[in-house]
Amino acid sequence: MRVSRLMLITLRDVPAEADIVSHQLLLRGGFIKRLTGGIYAYMPLLWKVLKKITLIVEEELAKKGCLQTLLPQLQPSEIWERSGRWKSYTEGEGIMFSLKDRQGKELGLGPTHEEVITQIISQTIHSYKQLPINIFQIQTKFRDEIRPRFGLMRSREFIMKDAYSFHANENDLQSTYSEMRNAYQNIFTKCGLNFVCVEADSGAIGGAASQEFMVTAESGEDLILISSDGKYGANQEKAVSIIEEGKLLELNKPSIIETPNQKTIEELCHNNNFHPSQIVKVLAYLATCDDNKKHPVLVSIRGDQEINDIKLSNKISHQLKQNILDIRIISNEDIQKQGITDIPFGFIGPDLSDNLLSKAKVWEKKFIRIADKSVIELKSFICGNNVKDEHKVFYNWHLLNTQQLICDIRKAKPGDKCIHDNTQELQECRGIEIGHIFQLGTKYSKSLNATFTNEKGLEDHFWMGCYGIGISRLAQAAVEQNHDDLGIIWPVSIAPFEVIIIIANKKNNEQKFLAEEIYQKLIDNKIDALLDDRDERAGIKFKDADLIGIPWRIVAGREASSGLVELHNRKTKTTELLDLNSVFKKLSEEFNTKKL
RNA sequence: CGGGGCGUGGCGCAGCUUGGUAGCGCGGGUGCUUUGGGAGCACUAGGUCGCAGGUUCGAAUCCUGUCGCCCCGACCA
Question: A228 and A116 in one domain?
Fold first, then answer.
């Protein structure tokens, strides 16, 4: 390709719409153009990048025996109603664009394809002998994001690779799951990215095991915790750790003390010489379910620890067998609206009476009581006395006499010891989620009643997995991770072009002929080369080449008359003055091609 | 949706407080000079000042409404 025909329009100024560097560089380099909020055109340069990523993905998935397909984007509401997701995906905070056709029939614009693929497979596959199936597609997905941002990072229309696997049993699912994890590692490595694979919360999609692939970058939206030896990594939403030792409270005669206006852990400790780890902190939450019921929840955790709302929400959801739409701390305003007046915030104990809820207008009238593991082990502790300005001291669980759901709802923090090895500490970093793999289990096959005949001749539900890669997001994540002051530094494997040849001065025929010769030879040998043949000053060409991030640059310039050109590496910024044979030799080594 | 900010040639911005009919830099075009890190000079084209009402002799500027965009939060590949 010649730059004169490339439609290369670069911007000198940073467009005001972008504030992270990858977004700015993609706009400045003419890779993307915004049509409206969260909707971008992929310009020719970026399309080449996306195709290269796509090819790597297709190649690696083919190695694992995956089939490629293309599924409809317009999906009938019926299948979403059957899986129970239509309402939650289209109403309120829903992310699915939906519409009605002229017959009044409701359709959704696919944000994901579990329903479609499950229906198709269940209509097609009837016997365990035809399993497993692992099928994927690469195409545009639509999500009505509440707040699109950061260019391609969170857009409303984006390119995604989504794969779905179907199995006769859980073991087979697990083995495909780990094959896919391996494929993902190969894909992201080939794309030249620094990434980590971390344990993840499976969120709205549901299911058992789930892992995310994160490109590490300061601007990442996710907080991840990684052990120093690299053996453990998790999204903070999911992370577990060994709790630091607390300061034991001696066993003593239980009593009640006056704690006037000491509502916070800090005030309580300061005034009475306690340590936060000796206190059982109790927080009141309100959980709103799919069926619109609102459950008050009392959560107990050690005073020096924090609650992980995701873990909490999952636990409540599991307990009630309901999706939790929202969970938040109960405010004074909330209880007033319910007509409840006597919850002594700041002095609540785990044994706060359900009677307080008797006047509630719409809330359920019984607390769900959840206690983190951190407080259950305490033999003697301090907690609120459920009366304003009073706390219990030297109490224990036996004395409180309450039933608690015991589980891990504690937020893991950087510096915590790791569960796999207590000499390792968790470290914090930020990441951009570019891939996510799930073991869905039988969630969708059951709700959509997708079955096959098993070895015993009985109807059985498929075991399913699903595996996503954000293709367009990956491209931008690569920029976020690979750039400098001058512009993008594409990893060679996904660069829009591998080599750019610059004619320093187009009016100089020696330079021009030499550059043309090199260009011809490179493209003849299947090296993706770009020739900057514009009638521009050399400086402009250098700036543009740096900005759009082509990994190798050849300049036919001053030394052209001696048959010498410069070979420059964008990443290392090293430049060598070489004759043509040496250039071809070096590049053929770099690109692993024998032909040159 | 809640909180904050912004809409003025393709891009970045000034003008608005104190109304008088739009300006700067970059970019585009033409010519000459220049030619290894976003050149210089000259000429030139290009704007419903987001949109709709209102106030006024007169509105980019004041008022009301509305639409859009960006940032912080809930959502996620």
Answer: yes
